[in-house]
Design goal:
The protein is of the alpha/beta class and about 290 residues long. The chain is about 35% helix and about 15% strand.
């Protein structure tokens, strides 16, 4: 189901400092997500999204964004993609993210987009305009294998298409890289998988890879994830239950080793393991003589 709603506020402040993505504000234009990744934490009860397959479109989002940006005194980075993908298939028709980026460009704000879609390329011209201030696009990639990616992220474009889009953005000077998170225990936590992601990211012009060797599991999300494990990876659910019980943070059993391997590979390929955040220009105060 796709339904329009009216929001009261669009931009939320991010707790500072944001050591992950360097954001000041967060923006969600939709609720729910068509990508339906089996591990998505946004299904958790705390987010109060009754049916995550229903897509709620914030019909007044552009009006709100324009009003809120006009009142902002601090030009910090605006992030989008934390609760849903701003480039889910519906965006190709509605162009809500595209319109929002045009407003952000108009007001001279920096932006950081997190996505699993090559649809971001439709807004390349606007991103190039925003990049006069600062623009970053991070592609969530947790496996280098298209077949496995289609299992765990059934509604998202193939991983190979994301890498191609990354290459296209990098070729036009857009800061781009990988959010390698989550790394699913017993599914994606092989050294070969991590090495393949790093190597392909390097080939496609990634400036950084942000890793998280594990996943989150809580309340309603856990039930959904376990049901998908029963369907896609029979017998694996029991392994999760024995290893993690009711833990929220579930690190891969070999997280420490993967971390070492990952950092060595990134150093070899010249890829950063953190993002260069937006830093506002400091205007020197004129001295009076």
């Amino acid at each position: 189901m796709i339904k329009e709603i009216r929001a009261r506020v669009l931009l939320s402040s991010v707790k500072q400092p944001d050591s992950w993505f360097g954001l000041k504000y967060n923006m969600n234009l939709y609720r729910g997500c068509q990508h339906q990744c089996i591990y998505c934490d946004s299904r958790s009860e705390c987010y109060q999204i009754e049916n995550f397959s229903d897509i709620l479109v914030k019909a007044n989002a552009i009006e709100l964004l324009r009003r809120e940006l006009a009142r902002k005194r601090v030009k910090g980075a605006i992030g989008t993609g934390s609760m849903n993908d701003p480039y889910m298939p519906l965006e190709a028709k509605l162009n809500l993210t595209g319109q929002a980026l045009q407003v952000i460009a108009e007001y001279g704000f920096p932006v950081h987009i997190i996505t699993k879609s090559d649809l971001v390329l439709k807004d390349l011209d606007t991103l190039r305009q925003i990049n006069q201030v600062y623009a970053a696009v991070s592609f969530t990639i947790t496996t280098a294998d298209d077949d496995l990616g289609k299992k765990v992220e059934p509604g998202a474009p193939l991983v190979s298409r994301r890498f191609q889009a990354m290459q296209g953005l990098a070729a036009h000077g857009i800061l781009t890289g990988v959010t390698m998170m989550p790394v699913l225990p017993f599914i994606e936590d092989q050294e070969e998988n991590i090495a393949a992601i790093v190597a392909r990211a390097c080939e496609c012009g990634a400036a950084y890879i942000l890793p998280w060797f594990g996943m989150s599991l809580r309340d309603r999300q856990r039930a959904y994830y376990y049901a998908r494990l029963d369907e896609l990876f029979p017998g694996l659910r029991q392994k999760y239950e024995r290893r993690f019980g009711n833990q929220y943070y579930c690190a891969t059993p070999n997280a420490t080793q993967l971390e070492h391997v990952f950092r060595d590979l990134c150093e070899q390929h010249g890829i950063a393991t953190s993002i260069q955040p937006y830093t506002p220009e400091i205007t020197a105060q004129l001295q009076l003589f």
